[in-house]
Design goal:
By secondary structure, the chain is an alpha/beta fold. It has 2 domains: 164 residues, NAD(P)-binding Rossmann-like Domain (Rossmann fold), CATH 3.40.50; 208 residues, Dihydrodipicolinate Reductase, domain 2 (2-Layer Sandwich), CATH 3.30.360. 38% of the residues lie in helices and 19% in strands. The protein has 17 helices and 14 strands. It is globular.
Amino acid sequence: MKKKANEKAGEVSRRDFIKASAAVSLAAMGVSANRIFAAGSDKFHVALIGCGGRGNGALSNCLAAAKHIGREMEVVATADWFQSRAEGTGKKHGVPNERCFYGADAYKKLLETNVDVVCIATSPNFRPVHFEAAVKAGKHVFMEKPVAVDPPGGRRIIEAGDLAHEKGLGVVAGTQRRHQNGYRRNAYAIKRGAIGQILGGCVYWCGGALWYREESNVDTDADYLVRNWVSFTEMSGDHIVEQHVHNLDVANWFIGHPPKTALGFGGRARRKTGNQFDFFSIDFDYGDGCHINSMCRQINGTDGGVREFFRGSEGETWGGGGLKSEKKIEIPDFPEHGGPYVQEHVDLLNSIIDGQPLNEARNVAESTLTAIMGRMSAYTGKLIKWSDMMENKESPWYKLTLAPSAEDFEKGPVTAPEDDVAAIPGRA
């Protein structure tokens, strides 16, 4: 092999050394280095679980990322609840129908193919099961946020993420702000004391209602839930989890840890299907006197806003810009090729090639659990502690599991929760 200009005779490059060391470690665990490093070639094999709009978008972003770094990428399989979606995406990318799987167990069949990187974009209730299966099968993973709808699901993601680390597998989540230039610059500055200790702030995701499907347009309750997943807490976690998780992720990232407690409220007045709230307002207590006000709303005809703001002891900043600090900190630029949705895939693929795979499983799980904590408080009117979700096995919040679960869909027919019935906290 021809040496690079900066390599001396008898030495190997840092990248080659990392790859060799990783291969030895992985071999000791029974993991194939060829599987970890793009099937032993310059080509990545990618597959998609969840062929809806965001799934197809994530797959396109992944293909664009591979092109940017000069790697060939082939789509080898698709999986979806619906046959038409699996085969529609497959046809677009030249995947034969025999590798376009559909139904509740489609993900299992996909994971048996020669795939290196799996994009998971099913509804959030399925992600703990699908992610765990992908890791056990030895696949690198990109998964959309959020990654669970209840505390057991969030903890399952963390456990599977730890296993991915042991196996040397890359995991990147759809919290794309962590790969966006402006946010990364601010996070870099905050970590180096640009605004001192964060004392408080506010995070918002307020906008209009999302799409919904009428029950008459589907054949079974399972079909109705899968098509109308953004309307049911059991499928999406409610919009505080499915959408507002982005802003809460920024708060956890900038502050450096998840909150200790959540106390809030919300309500339902406008929705036409499902059982979710229209709005939430939550006080997240991060300890040391730091409180973050969280507000999210999905109501048409109201003013919107998607943003984050933090005030520190020595300055202030918005999430992705607007840093005000008296300190002189040299902040580097961070790459952002094709926008953050592509950059997150660039970062994943480059980390695999370098033998230092990224692992964002815990970050996205903790941000998802933060949102779940806020939702549970609003639904019940109770103050919810982080420790009761994560440590106290006697707590009802630790055990709280929403149904139908992902496993229920695989066992047979499921019954959809009633439409237009939502939680009402307290008593008259």
